[in-house]
Amino acid sequence: MEKLTELTALELGAAIKKGEVSIEEATRAALEAVEQREGELNCFITRTGEQALERARALQAGVKETSSPLYGVPMAIKDNICTKGVKTSCASKILGDFKPPYEATAAERMERAGCVSLGKLNMDEFAMGSTTETSFYGPTHNPWDTGRVPGGSSGGAAAAVAGRECWYALGSDTGGSIRQPASYCGVTGIKPTYGTVSRYGLIAYASSLDQIGPLARSAADCAAVLDALMGKDPRDGTSLDVPAGGLLASLTGDVRGMKIGLPADCFGEGLDPEVRRAMLEAADVLKSRGAQLVEFDFPVMEYMVPTYYIIAAAEASSNLSRFDGVKYGWRAEGYEDLTDLYCKTRTQGFGAEVKRRILLGTFVLSSGYYDAYYKKALQAKGLIKAAFDDAFGRCDLMLTPVAPTTAPKLGESLSDPLQMYLSDIDTVSVNLAGLPGLSMPCGFDKGGMPIGAQLIGPALGEAAVLNAAHAFQMDTDWHKRSPYEKEVF
Amino acid sequence: MSITTEMVDYISDLSRLRLPQEEKERMTGELQGILAYMDVLNTLDTSGVEPMSHVFPVKNVLREDEVVPSGDRSELLKNAPASDGEAFLVPKAVE
Amino acid sequence: MTWETVIGLETHVELATKTKIFCSCTTAFGGAPNTHCCPVCMGMPGTLPVVNKKVVEFACKAGLALNCEITRYNKFDRKNYFYPDLPKAYQISQLYLPIARNGRVTIQTGERERDIRIHELHMEEDAGKLVHDPWVDQTKADYNRCGVPLIEIVTEPDFRTAEQVIAYLEKLKSTLEYLGVSDCKMQEGSLRCDVNLSVRPAGSTEFGTRTEMKNLNSFKAISRAIAYEARRQIELLEEGKRVIQETRRWDDNKDATFSMRSKENAQDYRYFPEPDIPPLELSEEYLDGLRKEQPEMAEERKERYQKEYSLPEYDAGQITAQKALVDFFEATVALGAPAKEAANWMLGEMMRRLKEEELEPKDMKLTPENLAALISMVEQGTINRNTAAKVFRAIFPDNADAQAYVKEHGLEQVSDPVLVEHAVEEAFAENADAVADFKAGNEKVLGFLVGQVMRRLKGKADPKTVNEAVRDRLTH
């Protein structure tokens, strides 16, 4: 058998089901990789190895009965998804050792599908950032080049999957936080349609944009995770009451006649030529399988970043007000009165990027500025949604870059926040319109860093998005490349 | 749109953040840059466009009025930085 | 100069739902601190609100009863501010699209009717309770009330006197009680009122600078605070000073209002649409259904009582002023008690006892079954009216069984004519002088003789029978 940690989640699941490998063996293999690589990668904030082994042994008895293709497969969870009794920090000092007395619906559903959780993954503080450098627990490093960032905010998740520390991970995506790190780390990740995965227990950054989704080794792995995750949750009023499941079973790889849209405005200025080349090659792969390519203008692109940052910052400023040193988490010392307690706790407890977004959000909602900024952004969101509806009248899926470049070096991005925000241009649009967006590896740059292509589908178009990615992965092996098995290819 | 340090003081106060002078100055500059960039939205004609807060037309998500037993207090208070076992404790906040 | 007082009210009413507005915790009053809580109402990270169906229903019913236009497309908004009684640091409320607007309540003061316009009615969540513990010099935050559903009813500045304000609140209270949407207990805070008040020279059409008064926990406090605040503002203006727009706190003990810290007045709540709650769309069919369920209100019921039960207008008015009395009255009548009797007992003995005990009708233990039984014993001659009054006072506090009490204390009325005759005989024998007096034409002694007979019967005879027996004996 191939080296265990190089299998996809579904391959491992099948091996477990067949009895070729025990869940404990798989778990030990993952824990070994974690032990070996965490020193240089720093993917985890909290490791729960002991509980994982116990869980692995307990699950073994159910192998025969299970119908879950991911039964017994070790995974890990981004640290903004609440796990009962296990520290959930959002990579922030302000949450201290917060151990939620409740479990996020998404974590509960994966548990029902027989997952073995290895722990909680590093991220940008409160999911605000594109590099995982804003974490209070130090940056995560990219397994392809530890001098580079893994992307963010789900950088720990992408690096752990790419670094073979686990087979898949749960991340969250507010403006690209699954897709961009997946792209930087050479793994497959999908942000499903807003409302298809419950947000209950996901610590909110921007409630109207946040969505949980998987990062894994293949589109098929992602389909299997989504089959377990999706579905109406009575605890989340924004969760959609639509049929869920069946995605894995629907992967045929048949894209004949499918219209793939290439929006010209996503291939303009600022796009790295190597990334552009990889995109066009990816499009050609799909074309060779019978898809049709359609080009069109998509002029709303220039409004994406401002619209996104106004809405996200506004919601964040409100969502993060509850962190005040009273009910949970960290409390500053040496305060004189209530206001002083609030101010000291929040000023010392939040990092610079979080404070920047809180201030920005407070500003755009404050008296006298609401109409000019927040209301304007909500109107722009309406127009962006309409532009996507229009685009999906011309094509079935859109193919765009995930990010204009490959992973930058550590320490290069944070000095200029606006520049960092601008690099989110290709991903934030998908969140604004609530659409499914997938990132799949489609090549490497000269420096050996992975490049990702983004497939965007219409609302509830997960099956089409995953099927196109699956088709692509049937003809390519970018997604199978491993930073540790480079010589294989 | 230009943002002043007074404005930064005002929004800091509303957000219960108290930035040291140096950080405040840097923040003011950064926010100025970000807001100046956001002015690009002014070139977008939004007249007659309804502000969209919910992207999908989901509506009337309601719950039945049926009591579910409340949480265990010791569990709910366990994460509190200061509590006396029955309530959260804060510095004097009552007139 | 003569001054005119201009008043507007903001009334917060807790809805009588079983569970909170956004989670399934109980709304029961009291309970040990933080025992009616869960991660949602404690604002724990990652938790989400889901709206209680009943809250929407109750808010609509209230809006309809206050003659409002119901907003078909409703949204919730967040109101952001930091305070330890608000664990999320925002209150979910309705700013942009409140559930009801443009209503009207007609009040009556003396002979005059007046329309009070309702500006809006919106749904929101209540905050927790803070109690300062002087021993440790710490404030304790209890979130049991957090998330209890409220409606806030805002009037236009249509009041000119405290009397009108009280009449409005009485009417509002009665309306909400009739609807069954709130128990309106001021002492438990389920009806709370903030008063906005300004003064202006009589005849002026412009408004003066207003102040908002808080912490008004009784109708009495409201009346006094209005009188105080109007006087304070007039004095300021007459001295050539200005009224400052601010929030003032009523102090019941000091009988005065005091300025609250001005910092709290300068608020920027940064309202924005609540992203966690999808909009509510209320259909015409839904509202029609609610309209059909609207109960008969105080005025209609008062008229019906006068017609159907021949109650005097005053009595009908007294009973229909409070839903609890209506419920008690109708239940008693339904158990077979004559309406007039039931009304008399309720407005006499019962009101007297409630006043003595400082109880609200809805808080008393006495049941309609028990009062009906008592009335029936009088009707059947088992006990007489005086005895019944004594029994009533005895059974009132704990709702002791009236029939059992009468039996236990041997209070059944003496109806055996032989026994009565015997007592008359004895009384006449012992009071020969009085008998002689009567026969000499002094009719006044009749009462004395009756009393003597009753004393011998330990008060347990029917006074009418005794009266007849005495008169019979004297005239034969």
Question: What's the layout of helices and strands?
Answer:
The complex is a heterotrimer of chains A (489), B (95) and C (476).
Chain A: H1 9-18, H2 23-41, E1 44-47, H3 49-60, E2 74-78, H4 105-112, E3 116-121, H5 155-162, E4 168-173, H6 179-185, E5 188-191, E6 211-216, H7 219-229, E7 259-263, H8 273-288, E8 292-296, H9 301-319, H10 338-349, H11 352-365, H12 371-394, E9 397-401, H13 417-422, H14 425-432, E10 437-444, E11 450-456, H15 462-475
Parallel strand pairs in A: 2-3, 2-4, 7-8, 7-9
Antiparallel strand pairs in A: 1-3, 4-6, 5-6, 5-10, 9-11, 10-11
Helix pairs in contact in A: 2-3, 5-6, 7-15, 9-11, 9-12, 9-14
Chain B: H1 5-14, H2 21-38, E1 62-63, H3 73-77, E2 88-90
Chain C: E1 3-14, E2 51-52, H1 53-65, E3 69-70, E4 73-74, E5 77-80, E6 90-93, E7 100-109, E8 112-125, E9 129-133, E10 138-142, E11 149-155, H2 162-179, E12 191-201, E13 211-216, H3 219-238, E14 247-251, E15 256-259, H4 262-265, E16 272-273, E17 280-281, H5 284-293, H6 298-309, H7 313-320, H8 323-334, H9 339-357, H10 368-379, H11 385-395, H12 402-408, H13 417-430, H14 432-439, H15 445-456, H16 463-475
Parallel strand pairs in C: 13-14
Antiparallel strand pairs in C: 1-11, 1-12, 3-7, 4-17, 5-6, 5-16, 7-8, 8-11, 9-10, 12-13, 14-15
